[in-house]
Amino acid sequence: MKRVITINESRLARFSAVAGAVLASSAVNSQIVYTNVDPDIIIDTASGQYNLDFNADAMIDVTLNVMNVMEFTSISTSTSAVYAGSLAVVTPGIGAGVVSAILGSSSSSYVTAMNNGDLIGTAAVFGGSSMAALAVDITITSSSSSYQISNGAFLGVTDKFLGVKFLIGTNTHYGWARLDVSANADTIRLKDYAYNVAADSPILAGQTLGLDAISVENKVTIKTTLDNATINVTPDLIGGRVVMFNIAGQEIKVVQITDVNTEILYEGVETGIYTITAQFDGGMVNKKVYIK
């Protein structure tokens, strides 16, 4: 079954604001290669590890695996403990990494379960090439006590995203994989994945289309204050213009869009109701504003 993932306007606006400089310097209409995994791939101890190759170049970009834990450890000469449970883990390939968060004030990191629309790009923190836990569910039992370790950002989640960077040749590319992980960390379900063909260009978690396939209305945000209006666009719309019209339909101000953020000032404009229009070859977006 094909999955349709939508990204709302505020997510796209944040994406264009953060990633604009990067995209503007590369392929602003960059292609997103999306793979719908149907049926879903189930990774558990019976299936063994799964090697994910985003661009089918026979290079492993990340490996997903589930491991059973059964370990006896001596605590003292008279006491031992048993570790039993499951680990769901990810191992980046050569030159690859997964989006991670720094743990407290230490240099340790853990894999981040990203939400739909989160930005995956150069600004993200990526864990290195060592194995990292998506989820842990282990019970530690000794003769005197028993307690459970259940943690990891992916533990018991549905439809969360693993942010990935990987190499195609010597170039870095960004992608995502959508996962479910069971509540006891013994199953990973891979549902779909995608990556940006343009090197060093970001992608949104859940993004399945390039910017050129998204409607103009979903690529423009107009925010107003008492003194100005700020127009935020995705980089492919750079080159358009912003026009302020009075109630009679006359052009009062015109500003060219040369960046992802464009400001139009109200200075010198008389009190009244005006329409601010962002105009592009593919359409326009309007917003009315009252200026005192």
Q: How do the helices and strands line up, and which of them pair or pack?
A:
Layout lengths: L8 H16 L7 E12 L6 E3 L9 E13 L5 E13 L4 E6 L6 E3 L7 E2 L5 E2 L4 E11 L3 E6 L8 E9 L2 E11 L6 E9 L6 E2 L15 E5 L3 E6 L7 E5 L5 E6 L4 E5 L6 E9 L2 E9 L1
Antiparallel strand pairs: 1-13, 2-3, 3-4, 4-9, 5-6, 5-8, 5-11, 7-14, 9-10, 11-12, 12-13, 15-16, 16-19, 17-18, 17-20, 20-21
For this entry, give a set of tags:
292 residues; mainly beta; Immunoglobulin-like; 2 domains; 7-stranded antiparallel beta sheet; 1 helix
Protein architecture, described:
With 292 residues, the protein is mainly β. The protein has one helix at residues 9-24, and strands at residues 32-43, 50-52, 62-74, 80-92, 97-102, 109-111, 119-120, 126-127, 132-142, 146-151, 160-168, 171-181, 188-196, 203-204, 220-224, 228-233, 241-245, 251-256, 261-265, 272-280, 283-291. It folds into 2 domains: 9-213, no CATH class; 216-291, Immunoglobulin-like (Sandwich). It is 5% helix and 50% strand. Strands 1, 5, 6, 8, 11, 12 and 13 form a 7-stranded antiparallel beta sheet that branches. Strand 20 and strand 21 form a beta hairpin. The radius of gyration is 24 Å and the shape is elongated. The model is unreliable at 17-29 (pLDDT under 50).
